[in-house]
Structure to design on (131 residues):
């Protein structure tokens, strides 16, 4: 709370323009602010699973609601590495095993928890351009 006082402004105070690069740099920093350095292999595996699920969704291989929930959970990093690897090993012939390994009830619980988190506190990122 004390830090917020540093950013206090009066109604008469005019905003200071930032240069063209500020937003580009800010968006990059914001995107990578809470990432750790070990995400490359994990990210590759996660993207592979997302691509596979999108194909199944397009081909209507599994129930659409199930796949949409699973995609949302993966995109929010809500599955373990083991579950991601399981998805990546599946073939069209054995895709039905996914419903057994990751049941819809489990997805519903995760989605409910994600919704509660999204309703909760938010992080405020304060940024300033230095000349």
């Amino acid at each position: 709370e004390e830090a917020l006082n540093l950013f206090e402004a009066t109604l008469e105070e005019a905003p200071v323009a930032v240069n063209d690069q500020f937003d580009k740099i800010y968006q990059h920093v914001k995107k990578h602010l809470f990432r750790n350095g070990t995400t490359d292999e994990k990210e590759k595996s996660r993207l592979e699973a997302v691509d596979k699920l999108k194909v199944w969704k397009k081909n209507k291989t599994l129930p659409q609601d199930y796949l949409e929930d699973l995609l949302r959970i993966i995109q929010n990093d809500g599955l373990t590495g083991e579950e991601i690897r399981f998805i990546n090993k599946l073939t069209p012939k054995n895709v039905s095993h996914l419903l057994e390994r990751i049941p819809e009830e489990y997805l519903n619980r995760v989605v409910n928890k994600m919704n509660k988190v999204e309703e909760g506190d938010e992080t405020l990122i304060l940024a300033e351009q230095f000349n």
Residues 30 and 123 are 11 Å apart (CA to CA). The longest helix spans residues 39-59.
